[in-house]
Amino acid sequence: MSPLAKSHRSKQGLTERFDLFINKHELCNAYTELNDPVVQRERFPVQLKDRQSGDDEAMAFDEDFCKALDYGLPPTAGWGLGIDRLTMLLTDSQNIKEVIFFPAMKPQDEPANKVT
After folding, report:
1. What GO biological process terms are annotated to this protein in UniProt (predicted)?
2. How far apart are CA 79 and CA 17, in angstroms?
């Protein structure tokens, strides 16, 4: 289940979300934000358990986020477009590494015997 997505209004066990796939690649995902702090606090321990079982995408418990929800979050929804994935689609690339500018993120290694 999507930990930050609101439960479906009429279908138990589902959340209000969708993903857009083109040519077997996820391009975008969207969902209605869960704005109930009680339900959110119930979901975080499940995510922690999933994380401990090896799920790298599971959310960490975020009490600050839950406190913010206590003050009220209006009904909210949004979507996220993967620019790197869109670039893959437009350039017909097979691997995301072909379109991400890794050298900008790679730390510079200093020679081990550098004299200062």
Report:
1. lysyl-tRNA aminoacylation
2. 9
Tokens coding 96: 């995301």
Domain regions of the chain by residue span? 15-33+76-97, 39-75
Amino acid identity at 80: G
Predicted confidence band at 110 (pLDDT cuts at 50, 70, 90)?
low
Q: Quick one: which H or E segment has residue 85?
A: helix 83-91
Using alpha carbons, list the distances in angstroms from residue 13 to 1, 21, 42, 70, 90: 8, 22, 15, 24, 36
- Percentage of the chain beyond pLDDT 70 is 86
Quote the pTM value. 0.67
> In sequence order, what are the beta bridge partners of 106?
none
Q: CB-based contacts of 42: which residues, under 8 Å, 6+ apart?
A: none
